[in-house]
UniProtKB/TrEMBL annotation:
Domain Ferric oxidoreductase, residue spans: 22-142
Major subcellular site: membrane
Keyword ATP-binding among UniProt keywords: no
Protein name, per record: Ferric reductase
InterPro entries in UniProt: Fe3_Rdtase_TM_dom
Transmembrane spans: 20-38, 59-78, 98-115, 127-148, 160-178
Protein's organism: Heyndrickxia camelliae
UniProt subcellular location: Membrane
Alphabetical UniProt keywords: Membrane, Transmembrane, Transmembrane helix
Lineage: Bacteria, Bacillati, Bacillota, Bacilli, Bacillales
Protein topology in the membrane: Multi-pass membrane protein
GO CC annotation terms, alphabetical: membrane
Pfam families according to UniProt: Ferric_reduct
Length: 198
């Protein structure tokens, strides 16, 4: 078993892998949030809205996938040595307990959003919309997790990336709240493969 782990870490250095997967996951979830909000604006053409929705769904799924890789690969780190339980159960890690817990909660929230979207027809649009408001705190938790725990945050460009993306999402959310007239009152038709519109 140790030999297998050694081979794995040789081709995929744990620290580099978890950093790359974490940053990729964050950027994908950022795109998912932005496209989810943007497609609700009345000025968006229906054809463009379909394209935005496709991007919204795809980046959401891949963001969760890379988020899982980001966390689970730490089981192979000999320095940190986090167990599967510490990775999957929020606030149980023996190191950076709070920061890691925020990242785990963010991942679970995004997973809940996707699952409930797939079962929109069964749970009803009203409940689905209510649950979907979790996308904003879920994104915020991921952002704080990256800023506090990400080793690349000290680098100027990465730090700038976090703050710019955070401002963009915050601005879009504020725009929806202050100017609701820009969002069409459209009826969402439940379907087998739901969306995770924000």
């Amino acid at each position: 078993m140790n030999q297998i782990l050694a081979e794995f870490t040789h081709f995929f250095p744990v620290w580099d892998t978890t950093r790359a997967a974490g940053l990729t996951s964050y950027l994908l979830l950022f795109i998912s949030i932005v496209t989810g909000i943007t497609q609700s604006f009345k000025s968006i053409h229906p054809k463009k809205r379909k394209t935005l929705n496709l991007i919204h769904e795809s980046t959401g799924w891949f963001g969760i996938l890379f988020g899982l890789i980001h966390g689970l690969v730490l089981m192979f780190d000999y320095d940190i040595t986090l167990s599967i339980g510490e990775i999957l159960i929020p606030f149980t890690a023996k190191t950076d307990t709070f920061s890691i817990g925020l990242g785990t909660l963010s991942l679970y929230i995004m997973l809940i959003l996707i699952i409930t979207s797939d079962y929109m027809k069964k749970i009803g649009v009203k409940l689905w919309r209510t649950i979907h408001f979790l996308s904003f705190p879920g994104y915020l938790l991921g952002l704080v997790h990256g800023i506090w725990l990400g080793p690349d945050t000290q680098k100027g460009l990465i730090s700038l990336l976090y703050y710019i993306t955070g401002i963009v999402v915050g601005g879009l959310v504020l725009w929806k709240i202050v100017c609701p007239r820009h969002s069409p009152k459209q009826t969402i038709q439940p379907k087998e493969e739901g969306t995770i519109n924000s």
